[in-house]
Amino acid sequence: ALNCPVTDLSYDQEHGGGILVKTEDMDLYCENLVNAAGLFSAQLAAKLVKKQPKSQQQQKRNFIPRHYFAKGNYFRLEGQRTPFSHLIYPVPEPGGLGVHATLDLNGHCRFGPDVQWIPVATDNNVVDDECMGDNNPDEIDLNVDPHRADVFYEQVRRYWPGLKDGSLAPDYAGVRPKVHHPDLLRDADGGASLGFADFMVQGPQEHGMAGVVHLIGMESPGLTSCLAVSELVADKLLLQGS
Ligand SMILES: Cc1cc2nc3c(=O)[nH]c(=O)nc-3n(C[C@H](O)[C@H](O)[C@H](O)COP(=O)(O)OP(=O)(O)OC[C@H]3O[C@@H](n4cnc5c(N)ncnc54)[C@H](O)[C@@H]3O)c2cc1C
């Protein structure tokens, strides 16, 4: 069902079990469901968790954390030829892979993405039904703030000292779903963020809900690893109950 946003999920009690998927236009029934709703997957998963017996909800939520969001900005190279013929990855920074150099199919060079955390609007202890606090990814401003260029110059010059002033122009931005937020993971002195959390592929083996796999916090390298992730998803569905 293309262009058909899913609005609710529940287990179907009337039509022989399975999962009832409510969309804006129709109801669908399925035996298995892969929740790959990107920025909204935790929100969608929460709708199913909410229908579980109250005594089990917290346990299930432990496997399906809420989403936090980190914007990633890019700047493009203008007025100077790129010296690169392949991607350049610096050492990763907390929350991201570092400002790397990418080349598009036309050979144009972009730098990014950086990590711009969206402030946590709701206390982490208050896990609401929507699983994303007050942060709605649809409301995140995707314009690139030109002032962020200062940090880009500094970071890119670590591996390309020849980058000239005035060569970086704001380009596009995207939003990553995250399963943690550095403001909630500081050490006692308020110092560096503690811990790192990868994306999660949560099937019946983890959360105990039959027939459902939730892809939570699917940030980079979700695209690169999509074939491996799909095999993992298939395994979780095929092996459930065994
Ligand atoms: C700035 C940035 C740079 C990145 N760089 C890389 C990289 O270099 N390499 C890499 O591997 N990955 C990278 N990623 C991550 C990669 O983009 C994601 O891992 C990948 O897109 C996740 O794919 P997905 O299909 O799970 O989710 P998405 O691509 O987000 O797709 C989710 C889909 O679900 C739909 N949807 C949402 N809610 C509903 C609903 N209620 N009903 C119906 N449909 C719904 C959405 O419209 C969307 O079409 C980057 C991400 C960002 C933001």
Percent of residues in helices: 10-25%
What is the count of DSSP helices, taking H or I runs of 4+ residues?
A: 5
| CATH class categorisation of the largest domain | Alpha Beta
Fold-level CATH name of the largest domain? D-Amino Acid Oxidase, Chain A, domain 2
Chemical compounds bound to the protein: flavin-adenine dinucleotide
Biggest sheet overview? 5 strands, antiparallel
Question: What fraction of residues sit in β-strands?
Answer: 15-25%
Pfam families: DAO
Protein name: L-2-hydroxyglutarate dehydrogenase, mitochondrial
Organism: Leptocylindrus danicus
InterPro entries: FAD-dep_OxRdtase, FAD/NAD-bd_sf
Structure overview:
The chain is of the alpha+beta class. It folds into two domains: 6-65 and 198-238, FAD/NAD(P)-binding domain, CATH 3.50.50; 68-178, D-Amino Acid Oxidase, Chain A, domain 2 (2-Layer Sandwich). The protein has five helices and eleven strands; from the N terminus they run ββββααββββαββαβα. Strands 5, 6, 7, 8 and 9 form a five-stranded antiparallel beta sheet that branches. A three-stranded antiparallel beta sheet has the order 1-2-3. A hairpin with a 5-residue loop joins strand 6 (100-103) and strand 7. The chain is elongated and about 65 Å long. Mean pLDDT is 87; it is low at 124-131. Bound molecules: flavin-adenine dinucleotide (FAD). Residues 5-6, 36-40, 44, 72, 113, 174-176, 215, 218-224 line the site of flavin-adenine dinucleotide. Its cofactor is FAD. Its EC number is 1.1.99.2. It comes from Leptocylindrus danicus.
